[in-house]
Design goal:
heterodimer; A: 142 residues; mainly beta; 5-stranded antiparallel beta sheet; B: 390 residues; alpha/beta; two-stranded antiparallel ribbon; 11 strands
C-alpha cells in the first residue's frame, strides 16, 4: 500500500478499540483495508458486527479489500473547524468494488472536483503521532 | 386481542419555559418549570403525576423531577434513545401506559441547556467501548462530528437524484421563518428571512448552509398525557391520539444509515406512516396540517414523500407550490419549527400539534384543522403521531 507523505496534527479523534472493531484498525495499521466476512455464509459486512445478520453465525474472518471503489455520496465540511482535521474536509461514502460501503476522507482533491460516481483508490494516511487511517484519492491522480 | 392505542389517550396539557440562548438555570429547573406549566395548562395538580417519560439524552432523572415538582408515587417511568427520534416515542410510551393502566397522568419532558450547556456535535471518544461508541467511531475519526455532516451525505444524494435545489431548501426555511414572525416564543420572531440572505450563506456541510440548520436552544417542553375520557373534562379541548408508533427499520443506524440499497428515502418514516395510518384509519388526505421534524430543511422535503403527501421525488414540487404555507395544502411547523422557533429536540413540535388541534396556533390556518401529523427525528429510530379533535 502507498504511504501518504501528508502528516496531520496528532489531535484527530481516536476510535475506541473494542472486540468488534479493533482488528479493522490493526489491519489499517498494517496498511490494509479490511472487510469482515461471515465464515458460514460468506456475506461481507461493514461496519463490522459480532454476528452475521443474514445467518446469525458468530464465526467470521476478514478479506483485504482492493482499495478501489466509487463515490456513492459526499459532503464538504467547512465549519466548525475541529483541531486535527484539514478544511475544507471532503467526506465520501465509498462503494468498494467488493460491494460494501464505508465513509472516509478524500484527500488531494479540489472540492470543486468531487462528484458522485468518481472512481477512488485507498491509501493509508499516517498522522504525526503514528496513527494510521485509510483515506482515498481520485483514481489515477498520483 | 391486541390493544390498539387509537383514541385511548389524549394530550391535555402543554408546558414550556422561555426559549433562550442562555437560561442561567439548571436543566432540572427547566424540567420542573415546564412540567408544572403543562399541569397548569391541563388544570391538573403536579401531585397527580404518576408517570414520567423522557429521552436518554436528557440529564434530568425522573425521580429528581418528581421531588422537585411534588409528584405522586410513580408507577411508570421510561426513557427513549436516539436523540430527537425520541420525541414521539415518549408520547407512544405514555399512551401505552395510559391504555394498559400502568399510570393515569404521564408527563413527557425534555429540558436542555442546548446552547449554553452541552451543544450537539462535540464528538465522542474515550476508553469505554459500547456498541454506540463503536458505531460513532466509523465517523468521528474522519471528522464527521456534527449532525449536519451525517445528514448532508443523505441530503446530497437525495437532492442530486431528484433535482432538488438550494432554493427549494430555502423555501422550507423561509416558510417556517414566516410562521415564526408571528410567534413571540420563537427565535425568528421579528426577524424576516429573504431568499437572498438564505442563499448568501456559505455551506457548513455541503449542500447544507446556516439556515438549513435548526436552532440551538436553552429551554424545556413538557406534554401531559392522560386518558381520552378524562381529558374531555379538563381545561382545554384535548388532542386525541388517533395513532402513534415508534419505528426503526432494517439497516438502521443512528444518523448514518448509509448501507441500505437506497439512500434517497426514509424507510423508518415510511414504516411510521404505514403504522399511524393503519392504527387511525386515516390517510394522507385526512391530514390537515403537520409538524414534520425539521432539524434540517432537507428532512422536511423527504418526509412529504415518506408520509404519502406526494409521490417519490415530488417533495420539492409541493414546496414550490406553497404547500407548507399557511394557506397551502399542508401548513407545516406553524410555530417556526426547530429551525425558527427553538430546538427542544422535537417536543416543541408536538406542543404545536396540540395548539393546531385546539385552534390556538399563533399562525392558525383559516381552514378547519381536524388531524395533525407530528413526526420525530429523521435519520434515526423515530416515530409519528396523529393528533385529532375530539
Amino acid at each position: 500500500m502507498i504511504e501518504s507523505p501528508l502528516a496531520e496534527p496528532a489531535t484527530r479523534i481516536k476510535p475506541p478499540m473494542g472486540h468488534d472493531n479493533a482488528w479493522w484498525w490493526q489491519m489499517a495499521d498494517e496498511g490494509k483495508l479490511g472487510i469482515q466476512r461471515c465464515a458460514a455464509c460468506q456475506t461481507l459486512r461493514h461496519p463490522p458486527r459480532p454476528m452475521c445478520g443474514e445467518c446469525r453465525s458468530l464465526e467470521w474472518d476478514t478479506v483485504e479489500a482492493s482499495g478501489r471503489g466509487r463515490i456513492c455520496s459526499f459532503t464538504i465540511l467547512t465549519h466548525p473547524r475541529f483541531p486535527g482535521y484539514s478544511y475544507p474536509l471532503i467526506i465520501i461514502l465509498v462503494e468498494l468494488e467488493e460491494g460494501t460501503r464505508l465513509t472516509s476522507e478524500l484527500i488531494g482533491c479540489d472540492p470543486e472536483n468531487v462528484d458522485f460516481d468518481l472512481p477512488v483508490e485507498m491509501l493509508i494516511q499516517q498522522d504525526s503521532d503514528g496513527f494510521k487511517i485509510p483515506v482515498f484519492r481520485l483514481a489515477g491522480h498520483r | 386481542m391486541p390493544i390498539s392505542l387509537k383514541d385511548e389517550a389524549a394530550i391535555a396539557g402543554i408546558g414550556l419555559t422561555d426559549f433562550t440562548k442562555n437560561s442561567g438555570v439548571s436543566e432540572l429547573s427547566l424540567a420542573a418549570q415546564c412540567i408544572v406549566a403543562a399541569c397548569d395548562d391541563a388544570g391538573v395538580s403536579p401531585g397527580e403525576i404518576d408517570g414520567l417519560v423522557s429521552y436518554t439524552l436528557d440529564s434530568t432523572d425522573e425521580i429528581e423531577v418528581a421531588r422537585a415538582v411534588g409528584a405522586s408515587d410513580l408507577t411508570f417511568f421510561s426513557r427513549i434513545n436516539y436523540g430527537g427520534g425520541a420525541a414521539v416515542g415518549t408520547i407512544a410510551q405514555a399512551a401505552m401506559a395510559i391504555a394498559t393502566g400502568q399510570a393515569t397522568t404521564v408527563v413527557c419532558y425534555r429540558a436542555m441547556n442546548g446552547r449554553s450547556g452541552k451543544r450537539m456535535g462535540q464528538g465522542v471518544s474515550g476508553d469505554i467501548t459500547s456498541s454506540d461508541l463503536i458505531h460513532w467511531s466509523w465517523y468521528m475519526p474522519y471528522g464527521m462530528l456534527i449532525p449536519g455532516s451525517w445528514i448532508a451525505m443523505i441530503a446530497n444524494k437525495y437532492m442530486r437524484k431528484y433535482g432538488v435545489t438550494r432554493e427549494d431548501l430555502g423555501r422550507v426555511a423561509i416558510s417556517q421563518r414566516n410562521y415564526a414572525l408571528a410567534n413571540p416564543r420563537a427565535y425568528g420572531y421579528g426577524k424576516p428571512l429573504t431568499m437572498d440572505e438564505y442563499l448568501g450563506k456559505e455551506p457548513i456541510a455541503y449542500p447544507l448552509c446556516l439556515y438549513d440548520f435548526c436552532q440551538e436552544t436553552d429551554g424545556g417542553c413538557a406534554i401531559l398525557v392522560t386518558s381520552a375520557e378524562r381529558a374531555r373534562d379538563l381545561r382545554h379541548k384535548p388532542a386525541i391520539i388517533r395513532g402513534v408508533t415508534q419505528a426503526s427499520t432494517r439497516g438502521q443506524e443512528q444518523m448514518t444509515s448509509y448501507y441500505r440499497d437506497e439512500l434517497e428515502s426514509l424507510p423508518e418514516m415510511e414504516l411510521a406512516a404505514s403504522r399511524v395510518y393503519a392504527m387511525s384509519g386515516l390517510g394522507p388526505d385526512d391530514i390537515d396540517a403537520a409538524c414534520l421534524y425539521d432539524a434540517f430543511t432537507s428532512e422536511v422535503i423527504m418526509q412529504l414523500e415518506s408520509f404519502g403527501f406526494c409521490e417519490r421525488g415530488q417533495g420539492a414540487n409541493m414546496v414550490r407550490d406553497g404547500a407548507l404555507d399557511i394557506d397551502g395544502r399542508l401548513p407545516n411547523n406553524t410555530h417556526g419549527g426547530l429551525i425558527s422557533e427553538a430546538y427542544i429536540h422535537g417536543m416543541n413540535n408536538i406542543a404545536e400539534g396540540v395548539r393546531l388541534v385546539r385552534g390556538e396556533s399563533t399562525s392558525q390556518p383559516a381552514k378547519n384543522i381536524e388531524h395533525v401529523l407530528v413526526s420525530s427525528g429523521v435519520g434515526v429510530p423515530t416515530g409519528a403521531v396523529i393528533l385529532g379533535t375530539p
